[in-house]
Amino acid sequence: MELRFRNTLTGEIEPFEPIEEGKVGLYHCGPTVYARPHIGNHRAFLFADLLRRVLEYAGFEVTQVMNLTDVGHLTDDADEGEDKLEKRARREKIDPWDLVEKVSESFFTDLASLAVMPAHHYPRATGHIPEMLEMVCALIEKGNAYQVGEDVYFHVPSFAKYGRLSGNKVDNLEAGARLEVNPDKKHPSDFALWKSDPDHLMKWESQFGPHGFPGWHIECSAMSRKYLGDRFDIHTGGEDNIFPHHECEIAQTEALIEKSWVSTWMHTRFLQVDGGKMSKSVGNVWTLDDVQERGFSPLDFRFFVLRTHYRGAMNFTWEALKGAAEARRNLADFKGRLEASAHGAVNEGVCARIDEARELFQAALAEDLNASAALAVLFDLRSDFLQGDLKTAEEASAALSFLLEVDGVFGFLGPDEGIISLSDEEVESLIAEREEARQSKNFQRADELRASLMEAGIVLEDVAEGIRWHRI
Questions:
Q1: What average pLDDT score do residues 3-8 get?
Q2: Residue 359 pLDDT > 60, yes or no?
Q3: 74, 130, 155, 156: least CB-packed within 10 angstroms?
Q4: In DSSP terms, which residues pair with 234 in a beta bridge?
């Protein structure tokens, strides 16, 4: 498969060529863990999962990183306002560190129910403060950043290539809706690398003062460099991340390393609900709990999202989800029929019709993840089978093998293939080890253990009695 992806940086669909042959580094902007992700957030996470699966299907060895933003993301997505996490913590009268744990738990539970493959690393911003401060100090030394009191700002005009990703050139940026006038800044587009606020609940002592915390943008740059190096292949996020977040990430990182940082930038569109944005006032900010309370499986929602191209407009309605659920059940039924016709055998034997289907399927995926065209191949094959065109056990067996191959990429039939089998005793032991890591505030290790349990099909839930778990 010769993959081609649309690169937001160039606006073109380009052949994908990894920096290191056979290997791919992926970085995905994960959640800001101040509130449980809603279904709109999950579109970006599901896109990231599909991208990883396609890359591995194409034979690449993938290292996937998805961060958790647990400090520094302010309410206006720039340098003003309250920290989103602290604002929610104050409203709920809960310690912000406890809120992080609560929301992170729900995030990982949601990923497991959506059959999302665990990333190799889930770094938390609060666990990488030294790496951020190292970058901030280096940018000051290079003349790209400056200190004002206990705050540090990146000077945008010092990076000539600013605006390549979003089109927001420095000369065109005016103080306005997203660029508040700040007399401390040399230029209105300058953004914070390090902020100071004595009232901030989550703060760190540094060479800049005792009350500091990182700016939102520096976090992803520091964490991606730690786990993927100074250069890596693909950075993804929602379309709202393009500006200012990803534009600022590029500026601060490339100013520091003085070379190209990320080869390919890929962004997914928003998920609309009932033709518009999700809104608390309208009452349509849905979570996976709402999906399940309406009688749907999270895998129905997964299929609903992934059958539309990641750059295509998508409108969520309950009726549309019902249609996706019915289509997914049809494919599950197709699998059962094939198993019966193949007499339980899964055979990759020669079958011209299946070879043709596989070729069309791979061609669709290779052309910028054309998921709708790829899945159409499977539905066409189902129609052929129902019309009697695949009659023999050998043909049914080959079709079953192809169906499982497709499911390995899209994951719509559930994580029933390749699951690591753990005994109840092994599960309890891992949960106990994870709880010990949490108590000692080794959250990185706790996240790794949770990812291992997710990969084994084990979902954890916080209940009054402690931790409850079940298999999926």
A1: 98
A2: yes
A3: 130
A4: 26, 264
The domains of the chain, with CATH numbers, are 19-268 (3.40.50.620), 273-410 (1.10.730.10), 424-471 (no CATH)
What does pTM read for this prediction? 0.87
Interval 95-123 mean pLDDT: 94
φ/ψ of 183, rounded to 5, equals -65, -15
- C-alpha span between 84 and 310 (Å, rounded): 27
Element (H, E) at 26: strand 23-28
For Cα atoms 20, 23, 28, give the angle at the middle one, nearest 5 degrees. 110
Q: Tokens 């295509």 correspond to what residue? A: 312
Helix or strand or coil: residue 114? coil
Q: Mean per-residue pLDDT for 2-6?
A: 98
Mean pLDDT taken over the chain: 91
* E-state strands within 109-255: 145-148, 151-154, 191-196, 204-206, 209-214, 232-238
Contact 415, 457 (CB under 8 A): yes
Q: Helices 247-257 & 129-142, crossing angle to 10 degrees?
A: 70
Q: Closest Cα to residue 455, out of 406, 407, 430, 418?
A: 418
Question: Is 198 exposed, middle or buried, given 0-12, 13-18 or 19+ CB atoms closer than 10 A?
Answer: exposed
Residue 55 clears pLDDT 90, i.e. is over it: yes
The predicted-structure confidence for 401-458, as pLDDT tens digits, reads as follows 999 999 999 999 964 433 446 788 888 899 999 989 988 989 888 888 888 887 776 7
What three-state secondary structure class fits 68?
strand
Q: Which of 198, 182, 200 is nearest to 190 (CA)?
A: 182
Cα 73 to Cα 83: distance, rounded to the nearest angstrom:
6
User: What does the pLDDT look like over 285-303, one tens digit per residue?
Assistant: 999 999 999 999 999 999 9
